[in-house]
Amino acid sequence: MANTHATANGSKTPEASGSGFAERVRDAIERRELSLVYQPQADVFTNRLTGFEALSRWRLSDGTMLPPDVFVPMAEQGEAIHLLGEWTLRTACAAAADWLRAGITDAPVSVNLSARQLDDPGLVRKVLGVLADTGLPAANLKLELTETALFSQAAEAREALLHLRGAGIRLVLDDFGTGWSSLATLRRVPVEALKIDKQFVQAMVEDRDAAAIVQAVVALAHALGLGVVAEGVETPEQRTYLQAYRCDALQGYWLSRPLTTDGIADFLAGRPPL
Ligand code: C2E
Ligand code: CA
Ligand code: CA
Ligand code: CA
């Protein structure tokens, strides 16, 4: 059953309560209401492709798009996040394995991991199982974690991250600067790169303080031996600033909107040779 109800403003929202929402996510997967789009990332200087971030999309049966900012937090309230998380991981890894077979090398896929997924004692087994099933090499998978997730991390979750890192999966700290920022977190977690949140990137050209933060985060990342990716890059000016600050990679509408699998082929065909 389409377990939806009308909210005060008339929009349809699936029930988040209890196991009802997990059931709703299971239905959505079966009916192919859920899909992934992939947003390219590129080298700031050469514009060479460096990977894709997988982003979830949910189209309700009446055509309404439910944004991930809405359904991911709803899923996180219960068990649904584990269904959604596993489906996302499996779908993204299968897509990345297809890209490899099509000769698109150097295109790892980044998957967002919810803080709640770190509490799952079966996480490492599930991730390694997905890699084995899809045939994707571990180095072609990146997991994006938020600061808040890592700040509140239990010892078991840290063990899980070390295990994933040891298996060759790459870990990235997402939305850097927006969470419960703790520089100590950077020393505790085995991440290989930081993503600078788009709020700083987008304010950078107009606002000296935002520019100083972006510049300092790039310097901090490099001093710690980490890579750094700027998200939400929309203009050529922003790219010029990132070049001046020696940021490594960028992601945003300037390069490309998130793409469907078909859109990726067009995007790659339309790019000039390296
Ligand atoms: P995020 O991880 O920070 O992802 C980046 C968001 O910025 C995406 O929004 C992307 O579409 C958007 N974006 C990319 N380039 C630009 C740009 O140039 N300008 C602007 N204004 N926005 C840009 P989206 O797809 O709506 O996702 C929102 C958030 O939902 C993500 O933020 C992530 O936290 C979460 N999310 C999405 N898919 C998943 C998922 O499969 N699992 C989990 N756990 N979270 C997800
Ligand atoms: Ca992300
Ligand atoms: Ca962000
Ligand atoms: Ca995020």
Automatic annotation (TrEMBL):
<dbReference type="InterPro" id="IPR001633">
    <property type="entry name" value="EAL_dom"/>
</dbReference>
<dbReference type="GO" id="GO:0071111">
    <property type="term" value="F:cyclic-guanylate-specific phosphodiesterase activity"/>
</dbReference>
<dbReference type="InterPro" id="IPR050706">
    <property type="entry name" value="Cyclic-di-GMP_PDE-like"/>
</dbReference>
<feature type="compositionally biased region" description="Polar residues">
    <location>
        <begin position="1"/>
        <end position="16"/>
    </location>
</feature>
<dbReference type="InterPro" id="IPR035919">
    <property type="entry name" value="EAL_sf"/>
</dbReference>
<dbReference type="Pfam" id="PF00563">
    <property type="entry name" value="EAL"/>
</dbReference>
<feature type="region of interest" description="Disordered">
    <location>
        <begin position="1"/>
        <end position="21"/>
    </location>
</feature>
<feature type="domain" description="EAL">
    <location>
        <begin position="18"/>
        <end position="272"/>
    </location>
</feature>
<protein>
    <recommendedName>
        <fullName>EAL domain-containing protein</fullName>
    </recommendedName>
</protein>
